[in-house]
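Q: My labmate handed me this sequence with no annotations at all. I'd like to see what the chain might look like in three dimensions before we decide whether it's worth expressing. Could you predict it?
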Amino acid sequence: MLFNSGIFLQFFAAFLLLYWLVRGSLSRRNWLILAASYLFYGWWAPVSDSSEANSADALVTAIWHCRFLALLVATSLFDFFIARRLDSLQSQAQRKYLLTASIVANLGVLSFFKYADFFLHAATDALNALGLSVAPRTLGLVLPVGISFYTFQSMSYTIDVYRRELPATRSLTNFLAFVSFFPQLVAGPIERARHLLPQFERTRVITLPMVQEGIWLILWGMFKKVVLADNFAPLADMVFGDKSYSAATVVLGTLAFGLQIYCDFSGYSDIARGTARVLGFDIMWNFNLPYSATSLREFWQRWHISLSTWLRDYLYIPLGGNRLGSTRTTINLTLTMLLGGLWHGAAWNFVLWGLWHGAGLALTRSSITNFQFSILNSKVGRSLAWLATMLFVFYGWLLFRATSLSQITAMTRALGDFTAPAWITSFVLNLIVFTLPLAAMELWQHKTRNLLAPLGLPRWLLMTLQGALLTAVILFWDKKGSTFIYFQF
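A: Here is what I predict for the chain of 489 residues:
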């Protein structure tokens, strides 16, 4: 079920009515959230799977459509009982064994669905390169939507229980609701149990400021997705779907994609947080004006914050972080970002993207590139640092968006070709028109250092702004809903 679809509006309206009717009972509200979350998730399979056309048995078809929901339930139950056992055991050896079982099970399921076909394809290519004629074979697996997100969320819970950073919950309902919480189930943010789980265990008081924040975030998130991202998308597709490139088309197409993926993903995160706020929950901010960063490290403190902090806490620091010398720090950073790239999918472009950012983070930590010049403390210096960071980040988006290594090579070579096609003027005008409202809002947020700056406006002015956003969303809205980019990860 998509946030930007008509069916979600009907679903959420009905859910809010029921949520209000059971307001006197915490347990009933949690049961309602759990049931709604499973309905929300289970809705995805029927609209994404064509197997129904080949099945005459309605019951078998219904069960087949629920297979990914069953996978979500099964992995959640496994981690719930593993955590309960971890909490009660005193033997460190036994606890380590159970934690390993949880990690292997979670990563095993994730790796099977996400990487099995990739490795089969790579193995076939390797055998053919050695002169052995092997026909391409894949399993044709469908990637369960949101599996990368809920797997990491559930796995971090068992790790935290193992570390004695929080006790295992005794409520199965609360835990299942925590893992499957529909506002952030399929595309994050990846919540930590110590932040979100306690919110299921205490009475939630919904205040007017929470509702106002929620409404604003839902409107702004929908605007970023429906009006901005969905109009940047065809611009990016025009370039990346072509076979002839020039410096102008490569630069503008990459810029369009960088804006598309940001508006698409941060728009989803805003809607997720806004929806949760209306229900009385507080989920983390996943983006904090990342394109204002003046260093690569700052960019990753602002972009997909839930994933970057997850990788830091559960991978980079356990590997040794920056405590074991510069060489080991470089290895740890590169490995962490490589795995972060692979988290996005099984493709060589994601590998390159992860290595690109890993190498960049390692280099910017080195003594060679960290000399402190007085110019860096000036406005000109900060502007140059921002420009260098954005050039690095946006070339990374070229690696991320490209469909093959040959396309990456061709587009990189084209950066030396300064010709321009006839349609470039129209392309630039479209890019400017849809970039201006985003730039204006984010400059305001950056200047005030407040992501909720619009809520400080006089009421009449805020309502005028919200009305303008709503009008734009209605005008541009495809009620069937276009898929969010991060659903494929």
